[in-house]
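Lecture 7 notes: from sequence to structure.

We start with a single chain of 365 residues. Read the sequence below before looking at the structure.
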Amino acid sequence: MKKTTIKLTRRIQLLADLPTKEERKEALGMLYQWQNRCYRAANLIVSHLYVQEMIKDFFYLSDGIKYKLADEKRDGHGILKRSRINTTYRTVSNRFKGEIPTNILSCLNGALVSSFKKETQKYYKGERSLRNFRRDMAFPFSMEGITRFAYDDSKSAFCFRLFSVPFKTYLGRDFTDKRKLLERLATGNIKLCTSHIKLIKGKIFWLATFEIEKEEHALRPEIIAEASLSLDVPIVVKIGKEKLSIGSRDEFLYRRLAIQAARKRSCEGTAFSRSGKGRKRKLKAMEKFRESESNYVDHRLHVYSRKLIDFCTKHRAGTLILVNQEDKIGMTKEEKFVLRNWSYYGLMTKIAFKAEKAGIEMISA
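Now the structure, written as C-alpha cells:
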C-alpha cells in the first residue's frame, strides 16, 4: 500500500525569548554545548556499532566462542548485557549525563543505528568508511522536547519551549509556506516529526520536519508523461498530443553566465580594493554575486519543476518518465561547461520531490 503522507523540512530562524542579553547569551552557549556533546556522541555511537559488527573478524574467534550480537538474557549465545540499540544509547548517556537532554541522545542513537544497518554490507565489502561528523552538525530532537507551542499575538510570533528554554520564531518576509505549516501545527492538523537545531554564526535555525498528507489529484496511471531534460531547453514534456517546452537557453543559461561574468570582474577588481579589515571585506562583492547565482538557479529550478508537475496534473498523468537520462548523465560528466552550468541533479531532485508530493510515479529511462 502506498504511503499517503510526505515529509517536508523547512528552515525557520529562532530567537531566544528571554528579557536580558546575558540570559540570551547563556541560552546560546547551552545550545553550543549540546551541539558539541551531540558531535562527540555521534562519533562514539558509530565506532561502537562498527566494533560490534566486526568483532568476529577483529578477534578471529573460534567456533566454540559465542559471539551473537543479542541480549544474553534472551539468547543463550548472546554476548551483550542489553539489546543492541540500548548498548550504544547507554554508552553515550552515561558519558554525557547531565550535559545534554537524553531526548537528543535517543533521537541521535536511533537515527545512526538505522543508517548503520542500511550500510552494513558496504562496510563488509570495504566500499565505504565509517561516517565522520562535523563539529557544527545539527542535533536532533523529537516532539517530546517541545512544549507550549502556540502563536503569541503580542510578539507576533510562534512561541514554544525547547527543553525548558523559551524560543520564538522569526519568519521575516516569508514568501513560502512556513507560516501556514506552523499554524496547522499549532491547531494539531499536521504532525511534527524528529527535527533538528542548526547553529550558524551565532544564529539559531530550526530544521522543522512536518508530516503532511499528499496532494489529491484525479490521476490515471495509464496516462504517461514523457519529459526530456537538456541545457538548451530545460524541460520538454509530452502527454499524448499535448506538448510543452519549459524554459529556454536565453532565460536560464545566458542569465547565469552574466552573473558569473560579473563575479569574475569583481574578482579581478579585488586587487585594487582598499586595504584593511582583512580578506572578508575585500571578497564581499564576490560572495554577493556567488549567492546571487545560487539563488537565481535554485529559483528557476523550482519554477521549472513546478510547471512540469502542474502540466502533468492538468492532464491527469499518473506516470512521469524521464527519457534518455543515462546519456544525459554521461554527457554531464564528460563536458566541464555542461557540468558547471547545467544543474541537472538539482532539477532531478526537485522534480522527484514534487512528483511524490502530487502522487505521480516518476521513472528514469
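The CA atoms of residues 16 and 27 lie 7 Å apart. Keep this in mind for problem set 3.
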